[in-house]
């Protein structure tokens, strides 16, 4: 659960960083979160996948569009997320992995609203997903 | 079976009744949810379990221990103590197995507001009822 200490409104949005070593697919998200084919939770995570895909763009485009005052992507992520996440992004760039940034909103359905307000950091051998911070 | 209070069967929109064929452990619940241990999905399932079962009042124990003289019938107890609609109470008691568990609680009583909100949503309720359905299959 994220806690906001200053002015609180009825809606919120949260940002995420996603690093993928290959194509980011629904199956790769299912493997990341640990749901089997028959799991009752599969629908919820399928919706999360759609939300992520719909709302993420390549991180360099995101910085250029919204945060061009930063020198580069790593500086931007270090300032707006964390130094540790920036380090991961730098390593991902060296490897040639895909780095995306996006936002989830509490205004776009019950499932997206839940994941928007939940706080999680997930990692396996092919994907890193950081939705720990409520930045914007 | 999870009965949320959307239809105003009993007091409070966050209140629910849960019917199980027997008391189930967190391990049983995780197995019924078919998620791998130690992942985000299993963490969510554990939070659902804590929200619905760990923090629920054991209604049968409460009835037997404190109220059975005043309300010999469980249906009447559910009606007077928890304001459960008469028809719902009769159906509910009729569906209870001798080994059954009947829990009552608020989805917010464990302090996990996010998961509480998810459980009372339409997709969340569907997930919980699918897990409870699998749980029944496992018990058979």
Question: What's the quick description here?
Answer:
With 136 residues, chain A is α+β, with helices and mostly antiparallel strands.
Q: What is the share of helical residues of chain B?
A: 55-70%
Number of strands of chain A: 5
The main β sheet of chain B shows up as:
4 strands, antiparallel
Identify low-pLDDT runs of chain A.
none
What share of residues are in beta strands of chain B?
A: 5-15%
The pLDDT mean of chain B sits at: 88
Q: What is the strand arrangement across the widest sheet of chain B?
A: 1-2-4-3
Biggest interface, residues from each chain: A-B, 22 and 27 residues
Judging from the principal axes of the Cα atoms, what is the shape of chain B? globular
Taking the sheet with the most strands of chain A, its summary is:
5 strands, antiparallel
Alpha-beta content class of chain B: alpha+beta
Summarize the helix and strand pattern of chain A as letters.
Answer: EHHEHHHEHEE
Shape of chain A: globular
Number of DSSP-assigned strands of chain B: 4
Count of structural domains of chain B: 1
Instruction: Show unreliable segments of chain B.
Output: none
The succession of helices and strands of chain B, N to C, reads EEHHEHHHEHH
Task: Give the radius of gyration of chain B.
Answer: 15 Å
If helices are DSSP runs of H or I spanning 4 or more residues, what is the number of helices of chain A? 6
Task: Describe what you observe in this structure.
- The complex is a heterodimer of chains A (136) and B (140).
- Chain A has 136 residues and is of the alpha+beta class.
- Helices cover 43% and strands 21% of the residues of chain A.
- Chain A has six helices and five strands.
- In chain A, strand 4 (120-123) and strand 5 form a beta hairpin.
- The model of chain A has no long low-confidence stretch (mean pLDDT 86).
- Chain B has one domain.
- In chain B, helix 1 packs across helix 2 (40-54).
- Chain B contains seven helices and four strands, in the order E-E-H-H-E-H-H-H-E-H-H.
- With 140 residues, chain B is of the alpha+beta class.
- Helices cover 55% and strands 12% of the residues of chain B.
- In chain B, strands 1-2-4-3 form a four-stranded antiparallel beta sheet.
- Chain B has helices at residues 26-33, 40-54, 59-67, 74-82, 86-95, 113-120, 122-139; strands at 2-4, 15-20, 57-58, 101-106.
- The interface between A and B is medium-sized, with 22 and 27 residues.
